[in-house]
Write a structure and sequence with these properties.
Elements (H helix, E strand, L loop, with lengths): L1 H5 L3 H12 L3 H8 L3 H8 L8 H11 L3 H4 L5 H5 L25 H10 L22 H13 L7 H21 L4 H24 L3 H18 L2 H15 L4 H15 L5 H17 L3 H16 L15 H14 L3 H12 L7 H17 L3 H15 L6 H13 L6 H10 L2
Length: about 425
């Protein structure tokens, strides 16, 4: 894909988009303003596109950064929001300058990722045995890891796990085979810990729970060895998030330890994140008072600025994220009157390109509506979540929606329920 873009071989680009992401030629044609038969002809290797205007149109439709095509940065590149922030349109398409819907961004990103395209990432050579690793390499790796993290905004763990695992394994090989100073070694271990968490999260999202646990534990060991207390605490918080479903006491104790390990001097976003996860373990355990205490601690952390730099892996934690967690916690505590207003409000801030996350958050909203006896509303929200989760490479949305759908079966005579049950094929 990357080579095809660089060569302006749009026939290969279109063919990959169809074969890998299942985007039809007719849809590509409509969004790129090309006749369908012309798209098919190009995909069969006949002809080329050389017009500047047409190349620019394709770049905007498929969200190909201008630098990859020899163009100036596109207008939408400047407007791309940070992770989990509101992104403008509330439908599942990104909108170009003329206001027309484009090819689904999530689908094209899947095609790009699966075809080996990681936009704009620097090429890094793995260290050979005995090769000297420069002092700048850890920071380059950290920046690369941050860029790759953005894939998680669009793709599920089934799409990203191998990518993230490969980065982790490459850094591990550098640590094993390279030669470096003690300070560089500690920095590499910190990056390794961050990459292990990223790969572990993707494994968890893909339903590979044994892999996730192993990677989180490896992350904790690397973080401790590197002296990075914040990452060590976050590794424990990941483990707590995973353990609490099977053993509530063990999950809660691990979450408490995570906050303790990171300490009061951690960056505000880190403390907010760890307290959010602590609140979640308390909510799963049914402890409303401690849940509220932990949520308040997260709010306090977000309101503070202690001067410590915010690591990229915690940069997505903001007040919207805290609202989501608040609504989730009150849902688990069976307090729908508290959960519904919070979730309804914050979900207006999430556009549909964050399909996995939004479908998950909608599942908690549907759950709360059911708890409140609002069956029709629960069915409507469940339907929205089903639509968003279709094609997402994550096991979690369906796992969350399955028990809700089972409860809805008791109300199958309600038209809205019958409709959503049919769509879910239950």
């Amino acid at each position: 894909m990357r080579a095809a873009i660089a060569d302006h071989d749009f026939g290969v680009v279109f063919a990959l988009a169809r074969d890998v992401a299942k985007i039809s030629y007719s849809k590509i044609a409509a969004e790129c303003d090309i006749k369908p038969e012309r798209v098919g002809t190009l995909a069969r290797g006949r002809g080329s596109i050389t017009s500047f205007d047409k190349i620019a149109k394709i770049a905007d439709a498929l969200r190909i950064p201008g630098s990859l095509l020899g163009l100036a940065p596109r207008e939408w590149e400047v407007a791309i929001p940070p992770p989990r922030a509101p992104a403008g349109p509330t439908d599942d398409a990104i909108v170009n300058r003329e206001g027309k819907g484009t090819v689904l961004r999530r689908e094209f990103f899947k095609a790009s990722a699966r075809a080996g395209l990681v936009v704009g990432l620097p090429e890094l050579t793995q260290a050979d045995s005995g090769r000297r690793v420069g002092t700048k390499v850890p920071e380059q790796l950290r920046q690369r890891t941050a860029r790759l993290r953005r894939l998680d905004d669009i793709l599920g763990g089934g799409d990203t796990f191998r990518v993230y695992l490969g980065e982790y394994q490459a850094t591990k090989a550098t640590l094993r085979d390279g030669s470096y100073t003690e300070a560089t070694g500690r920095a590499l271990l910190s990056v390794l810990s961050e990459q292990a968490q990223q790969a572990g999260w993707a494994a968890f999202d893909a339903g590979k729970h044994a892999d996730a646990s192993s990677l989180y534990e490896e992350s904790h060991r690397a973080a401790v060895e590197s002296g990075d207390a914040s990452l060590a605490g976050n590794a424990l918080a990941f483990l707590a998030y995973q353990r609490v479903d099977a053993d509530r006491d063990a999950g809660t104790e691990t979450a408490i330890q995570a906050c303790r390990v990171a300490g009061p001097d951690a960056a505000p976003g880190v403390r907010a994140l760890l307290n959010e996860r602590l609140a979640w373990t308390y909510a799963i355990s049914g402890n409303a008072n401690e849940t509220e205490r932990a949520l308040n601690a997260a709010e306090t952390a977000l309101s503070e600025g202690n001067g410590n730099p915010q690591p990229d892996w915690a940069a997505w934690v903001d007040r919207n994220e805290l609202q989501v967690m608040t609504g989730r916690c009150w849902t688990e505590l069976r307090r729908p009157l508290r959960a519904v207003p919070v979730l309804e409000d914050v979900l207006t801030q999430y556009d549909n390109t964050h399909a996995r996350d939004k479908s998950l958050y909608l599942s908690w909203l549907a759950d709360s509506y059911l708890a409140a006896g609002e069956v029709e509303q629960a069915a409507t929200v469940t339907g929205r979540a089903l639509e968003l989760s279709a094609g997402v490479a994550s096991v979690r949305p369906r796992a969350r929606l399955s028990p809700i759908l089972r409860q809805l079966r008791d109300h199958h005579e309600v038209p809205a329920v019958a409709d959503v049950l049919e769509r879910a094929k239950l």
